[in-house]
Amino acid sequence: MASSNAYDLRLFESTAAPRRAPNRAPERRPKPKIVKRPAPTAAQLRAQQRAAFRQSVKVLSLSALVLVLFAARLYGSARLDEVNHQVADLEDQLSIVSSENTRLNMELKSRVSLERVEEYATNVLGMVKQGNYQIEYVDLAEADGVVVADGEQTVDGSDQTDGSSLFEKLKAYLS
């Protein structure tokens, strides 16, 4: 695998004189022929003017459109900034109002506590706590009774044994 060409430096030595290209006379190129255009006709001039006018209208309308879009973007940014400032101001007001609400709720709770109500009732109004002797019990074990407009009294509907309908009983009860 080792070859002697890999280290043979004689390949890079120049033993002969360098070759030079022979001197040649520069080639003469023929002069280009200048061809004059014929003068444009009136119709061609009008067509060129129309095309130039259309081109300038396109450029101006595109410039106006870009200017309008830029102005709209600028206005939108200004309006957004204004709304953001309003939101920040309202958030500040909300925090102030919510802290005031918390303070007022705490004050209300302190004024309406059960101890203060009891103290006011006993000292200012002269009230006393209820005793067991003041309690009355209602007995609901008695039969229910209905008083009719004529002054008759029925108990549990026992007086109506004539077999009247439920509708008649309700009518008598409501009247």
Care to describe what's here?
A two-stranded antiparallel sheet has the order 1-2. A hairpin with a 5-residue loop joins strand 1 (145-147) and strand 2. It has helices at 42-111, 114-123, 166-174, and strands at 145-147, 153-155. The protein is elongated. It has 175 residues and is mainly alpha-helical.
Shape: elongated
Query: What sequence of helices (H) and strands (E) makes up the elements?
Result: HHEEH
Average predicted local confidence, pLDDT: 83
Q: Give the biggest beta sheet.
A: 2 strands, antiparallel
Q: Which bin fits the share of residues in helices?
A: 40-55%
Q: Widest sheet: strand order? A: 1-2
Indicate the proportion of strand residues: under 5%
Terminal-residue CA separation: 132 Å
Poorly predicted runs are none
Would you count the extended β strands for me?
2
